[in-house]
Design goal:
- This protein is mainly alpha-helical.
- The chain has two domains: 33 residues, no CATH class; 40 residues.
- Helices cover 80% and strands 0% of the residues.
- Pfam families: SecE.
Length: 76
């Protein structure tokens, strides 16, 4: 059975090695990537920012609590 055109291209790329083979393989993988839509990027960015704010507030609250505790017991 004859190989398809895509199979021939992949077979040639597998035979190459070194610098050019790396970039050929990388380019082929990038074409397979499912890139996120604009709405997904906005939602993921918003979720990341909200999580950063929440974690920042938790760390700040812990820092203030420990500082007050150390002041209360007379260490600082």
């Amino acid at each position: 059975m004859a190989k398809t055109n895509e199979s021939l291209v992949e077979a040639k790329a597998r035979k190459r090695s070194g610098f050019f083979a790396f970039f050929a393989e990388s380019w082929r993988e990038l074409r397979r990537v499912r890139w996120p839509k604009r709405r997904e990027i906005v939602l993921y960015t918003a979720a990341s920012l909200v999580l950063c704010v929440i974690l920042g507030l938790l760390i700040w609250g812990f820092d203030v609590g420990v500082s007050r505790l150390l002041t209360f017991i007379g260490v600082v």
